[in-house]
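Page 37, continued from 36.
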């Protein structure tokens, strides 16, 4: 029976704890900035008004700085022994295209499934709808959009596919680590609905990160998911028949892109120092 390093496995969940601490630090900092500037976009459950843009910028910037430094000095050389394959520009473009399309298809599939479920169980999805409406409402600021589609993917990939995942690879091996980092990513969202699809998204992101021995492909895929979630309107998912068609078409296409990626030879596109 393979022995696991329990100490490193426990340490691997420390980044998750840190994200919760930063969440509340950023929240109170954003509340203070909102009070000073006299503007707000989101009413928190406790009655306090917090500018969503301030909150996200502060939170993701802190996460990015902490985990970029942590990853750089602890795990940057994790794949140093892996052979770096020289690839053509055409191959890089194909990988980039595949990642972007996969991200868009994933978002289409998830959103269509959620749209059908929300029509049948509106009460269960009430809190989830409040979160989404606060992010995509008419008063959404450019700070919020920038933080969600640029800062969040970089910061979260450094946190979960970077530090968390690397500790778990050392502790339990690659395959269990892909599952554990996805669990941590799901818990990070603090919401059952978001946490559920974040878990499955985390599985894909973890597999992509390990396959290419680099965080950049996972960041690109993550950005594609977030961008499509912002710019594909909710009206696109209206109608159960339409959503069912989207689920089948996006699901089949998603399976094809994942299968095609798995058939191709795994390569490392890790940049040199």
């Amino acid at each position: 029976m393979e022995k696991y390093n329990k100490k490193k496995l426990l340490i691997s969940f420390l980044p998750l704890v840190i994200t919760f601490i930063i969440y509340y630090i950023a929240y109170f900092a954003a509340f203070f900035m909102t009070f000073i500037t006299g503007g707000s976009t989101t009413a928190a459950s406790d009655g306090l008004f917090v500018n969503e843009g301030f909150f996200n910028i502060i939170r993701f910037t802190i996460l990015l700085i902490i985990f970029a430094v942590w990853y750089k000095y602890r795990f940057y050389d994790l794949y140093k022994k892996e052979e770096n394959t020289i690839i053509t520009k055409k191959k890089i473009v194909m990988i980039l295209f595949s990642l972007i399309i996969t991200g868009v298809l994933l978002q289409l599939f998830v959103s269509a499934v959620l749209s059908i479920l929300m029509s049948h169980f509106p009460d269960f999805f009430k809190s989830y709808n409040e979160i989404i409406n606060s992010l995509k409402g008419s008063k959404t600021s450019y700070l919020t959009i920038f933080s969600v589609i640029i800062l969040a993917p970089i910061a979260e990939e450094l946190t979960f596919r970077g530090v968390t995942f690397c500790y778990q690879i050392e502790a339990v091996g690659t395959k269990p680590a892909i599952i554990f980092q996805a669990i941590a990513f799901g818990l990070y969202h603090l919401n059952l609905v978001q946490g559920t699809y974040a878990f499955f998204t985390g599985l894909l992101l973890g597999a992509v990160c390990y396959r290419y021995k680099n965080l950049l492909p996972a960041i690109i895929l993550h950005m594609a998911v977030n961008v499509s979630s912002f710019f594909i309107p909710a009206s696109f998912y209206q109608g159960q028949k339409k959503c069912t068609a989207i689920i089948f078409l996006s699901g089949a296409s998603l399976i094809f892109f994942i299968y095609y990626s798995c058939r191709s030879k795994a390569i490392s596109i890790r940049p040199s120092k």
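The longest helix spans residues 89-120. Flag for discussion at group meeting. Residues 43-47, 267-273 have pLDDT under 50 and may be disordered.
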